[in-house]
Design goal:
With 511 residues, the protein is of the alpha/beta class. 48% of the residues lie in helices and 14% in strands. The chain is built from 20 helices and 15 strands. The strands form four sheets. It has a six-stranded parallel beta sheet, sandwiched between helices. A four-stranded antiparallel beta sheet has the order 5-4-6-8. Helix 5 packs antiparallel against helix 6 and helix 13 (345-375) runs antiparallel to helix 18. Bound molecules: 5'-O-[(L-methionyl)-sulphamoyl]adenosine.
């Protein structure tokens, strides 16, 4: 089994913000989960560096596009590890290998008869790097996303014959209802296709910041075609992920990982990924991805969070104060993947305090402290309490099933309900009472090992969401293995626990 997940590649016209962190974190949760299942995983993220948004931003700053791209690509590259993201590669569309691949594939698309010369005229948003259809234009000829005035553009272009794929795309959607998720996004893409596909510009003449068109060097490729191809090109030159490289000297990652299992994207770039992208792959005779999952927007004050609107929450600042795990948890728990959701510092602090610090952090420190106090740190051997079986049985399978459908929030909720169940178990059993009565020593033994094993099992499942904290906790439980095969409640054997400092210290939230 192999699993290949991608994030969109981020524009380098501005610094990273929480909206970008959101997709990267979601992809990371999926990548880690599939690694836990023992699958070969490739997780790709990177930066989109060509095109007008970058050229314009560089011009405004008085630097070259390459200088701006170099500077901001570094910031995106640095963000990934700070988020705890375990991406296997970071692609930049200015990588020469990527550019060569774009030229190769798009020349093939032309050889296959899907490119012709023409003139394009339309309303254009330089921020989206996108021509808008009449029904996508806000009042005052403004971009509905960026609220800036659209420009009337007319230019000689080579066109991609998107219209030739009308029937094949309709057939694709009829055959594969899970090609696009959630269902509302599937419907949105399908109705766009059904409304009638028109050919789209493949190249730009007025712009020089892009991948040169090999058959006409007066043109560069329209940035979206260059960008979409990153998902394919990366596999042709990225180094093999750890663990895979040992098998063969020169592993062909394209063969192992193409087609992609999941493209995670935001809803603003739906049309490119659910219409243009499959059509382009068909034109190039390449296999189509299995799923495109479309998430919503993080909103602040009801508006999409975006650098150009100036309403951003700085992920670097949040991480510095609370740690990456807290940010990952908050975003995955509070904004169901697939829907829009408001984010705020108050909601973040509330989740941190009540769920991470109280429900999980306290459960862990209290359970470990009781095993140390009552049993000198040795976990009594024997079976776990059958009273919890009903709540815990089948949990890893349920979590996997949710994650297979990219239901990251629902999967986390399955786990969290059991965190709460264990907390109730502590209250019900009151081990501090049992400890007072020698006749109840066996009961206390059972409660303590049930707590240790319950924590272990849940922590393995939480690892994709809270990797650093989960590893600390599993180390304290003397059970570092995070493989899913051993996640079932009752499957582990914990011998000793060791003291652990607060996983989510409360004073941080007051800092
Ligand atoms: N460069 C293109 C993508 C090319 S993929 C072949 C692009 N870049 S972007 O930096 O503008 O946006 C990248 C992703 O971040 C998009 O999926 C977008 O939806 C997401 N987000 C940007 N702001 C967001 C929020 N406020 N909330 C959630 N995600 C949003 O588009």
């Amino acid at each position: 089994m192999s699993f290949y997940v991608t994030t969109p590649i981020y524009y380098v016209n501005a610094a990273p913000h929480l909206g970008h962190a959101y997709t990267t974190i979601a992809a990371d949760v999926m990548a880690r989960h599939h690694r836990q299942r023992g699958e070969a995983v490739f997780f790709l993220t990177g930066t989109d560096e060509h095109g007008e948004p970058v050229a314009d931003a560089a011009h405004a700053l008085g630097v070259t596009p390459q200088e701006l791209a170099d500077k901001n690509a570094e910031r995106f590259k640095a963000l990934a590890p700070q988020l705890g993201a375990s991406n296997d590669f970071f692609i930049r569309t200015t990588d020469p290998q990527h550019m060569a691949k774009v030229q190769e594939i798009l020349a093939r698309v032309r050889d296959n008869g899907f490119v012709y010369e023409g003139t394009y005229e339309g309303w254009y948003c330089p921020r989206c790097a996108d021509f808008k259809a009449e029904n996508e234009i806000d009042e005052g000829r403004r971009c509905p996303i960026h609220h800036i005035e659209l420009t009337r553009e007319q230019e000689d272009s080579y066109f991609f014959r998107l219209s030739a794929f009308q029937e094949r795309l309709e057939a694709l959607y009829a055959e594969r209802e899970d090609f696009v998720a959630p269902g509302t996004r599937y419907n949105e893409a399908l109705s766009f296709i059904r409304s009638g596909l028109r050919d789209v510009p493949l190249t730009r003449h007025k712009l020089t910041w892009g991948v040169p068109v090999p058959w006409d060097t007066e043109h560069v490729f329209y940035v979206w075609f260059d960008a979409l191809l990153n998902y394919y090109s990366a596999l042709s030159y990225a180094p093999a992920p750890a663990g895979l490289e040992a098998e063969g000297a020169q592993l062909d990652l394209t063969q192992t990982f193409w087609p992609a299992t999941y493209h995670l994207i935001g809803k603003d770039i739906l049309r490119f990924h659910t219409v243009y992208w499959p059509a382009l792959l068909m034109a190039a005779e390449l296999e189509l991805p299995e799923h495109v999952f479309v998430h919503g927007f993080l909103l602040m004050d009801g508006e999409k969070m975006s650098k150009s609107l100036g309403n951003v929450l700085d992920p670097f600042a949040v991480i510095e104060r609370f740690g990456a795990d807290a940010l990952r948890f908050y975003l995955m728990r509070d904004v169901p993947l697939g829907q829009d959701g408001s984010v705020s510092t108050a909601a973040f602090e509330q989740r941190y305090e009540s769920e991470l610090a109280n429900e999980l952090g306290n459960l862990a420190s209290r359970s470990i402290a009781m095993i140390e106090r009552y049993r000198d740190g040795a976990v009594p051997s024997g079976d776990v309490d059958p009273a919890l079986r009903e709540d815990f049985d089948g949990l890893p399978e349920r979590v996997s099933a949710r994650l297979d459908g990219a239901e990251l929030t629902a999967a986390l909720d399955e786990i969290w309900q059991r965190v709460r169940r264990l907390n109730r178990y502590v209250e019900e059993q009151a081990p501090w009472q049992l400890a007072k009565d020698d006749a109840r020593a066996e009961d206390l033994d059972r409660v303590l090992r049930t707590l240790a094993e319950g924590l272990r099992s849940l922590t393995v499942l939480l690892w994709p969401y809270l990797p650093a904290s989960a590893e600390r906790l599993l180390a304290a439980l003397g059970a570092p293995d995070v493989s899913l095969g051993g996640a079932a409640f009752g499957a582990g054997t914990i011998e000793r626990v060791s003291a652990i400092e607060a996983l989510f210290p409360k004073d941080r939230s007051a800092a």
